[in-house]
Amino acid sequence: MKVLANDGISQSGIDALEKAGYEVSTTTVAQEQLINYINDKDIAVLLVRSATTVRKDLIDACPGLKIIGRGGVGMDNIDVEYAREKGLHVINTPAASSHSVAELVFGHLYGLARFLHNSNREMPLEGDSNFKGLKKAYAKGTELKGKTLGVLGFGRIGQATAKVALGAGMKVVAFDPFLEKADLTLEFFDGQTVTFEIETISKEDVLKQADFITLHVPAQKDYVIDEAEFNMMKDGVILANAARGGVVNEVALVKAIESGKVARAALDVFEKEPKPEVQLLMNSALSLTPHTGAATNEAQDRIGTELASQIISILG
Question: Domain S-adenosyl-L-homocysteine hydrolase NAD binding spans what residues (predicted)?
């Protein structure tokens, strides 16, 4: 049985599959050549991440496919329902990258709170000639401890992010239309645990209360954060989007930054990936990463082994 990991898979995943007797290819096949490759090579399992799309045409044209797997959470690049109607198994790894995304969000939030994204650019350029000027410019940092983090979307990743916030001494308020409350257990190095019960509140209340806001929602038709939502927020709020491009109105975000409503913001995802708007790339109030939320070695190992175990469970 042959597996094509078109967007790559960790060595741990390859090892698990090969041990179970599967033949694994990590060749990256261009989208327009994928149908022919799958049929010519008799591929039974197609694994993708965000780069490769699996639409109706491919599903119809590749009758030998048995499983489509997504290494990660969101499956908006796969026609999931159609594939399942056609008898294919569609799998993903929703839990594998939760903590990786949470840590990236906090990397951004700590950096934004202390202007690290600016300081790291300016020090190499002006550190010797304008040290005192830079010190003054970046001397009004804020602490996260004691502040309120608003979490929009309280699924696995939202909860993982909330755990980091609780560990940092923050108050957490959360909104999720499908969840009334969640028990979050923080595990510490010496085996001790502390459990917090977080009851969700309205989106409006989260926006009004939060000093920092992070989004963990799936892609959807309308913006989750648009001009009306920005108007509800505290003045000087710091925002992070490591969910999906298109859940925050980027034009409204820039306006909110210009007005002072939003002090600074972090974006790991963009409406026009892989070519974000230049005005975002050049905006000094933004801390930017190129969609690397799940891109840790640990997460990739978990993704690979989880996909492998699901494939082995389904096909034997």
Answer: 127-293
Q: Which of 152, 306, 293 is nearest to 218 (CA)?
A: 152
The answer to whether the CB of 245 falls within 8 A of the CB of 270 is yes
Mark whether 291 is an active-site residue.
yes
Helix (H, G, I), strand (E, B) or coil at 73: coil
Catalytic, 99? Answer: no
Which one of 216, 244, 264, 302 is the catalytic residue? Answer: 244
**49-81 tens-digit pLDDT:** 989 999 999 999 999 999 999 998 889 899 999
Helix (H) or strand (E) holding 70: strand 67-70
- The neighbour count for residue 255, using CB atoms within 10 Å, is 14
> Which residues in the chain show pLDDT less than 70?
none
Return the closest-CA partner of residue 20 out of 298, 303, 313, 302: 313
| CA neighbor of 268 nearest in space, from 190, 215, 196, 202 | 215
| Radius of gyration, CA atoms only, the chain | 22
- Rounded to whole angstroms, the Cα distance separating 195 from 212 reads 22
Contact in structure between 161 and 215 (CB atoms under 8 Å):
no
Q: How far apart are CA 183 and CA 194, in angstroms?
A: 10
CB-count exposure of residue 107 (10 Å: 0-12, 13-18, 19+): middle
Burial group, residue 176, by CB count within 10 angstroms (0-12, 13-18, 19+): buried
The count of C-alpha atoms lying within 13 angstroms of the C-alpha of 292, restricted to the half-sphere facing its C-beta, is 11
Catalytic hit among 18, 126, 143, 273: 273
Residue 262, φ and ψ in degrees, nearest 5: -105, 125
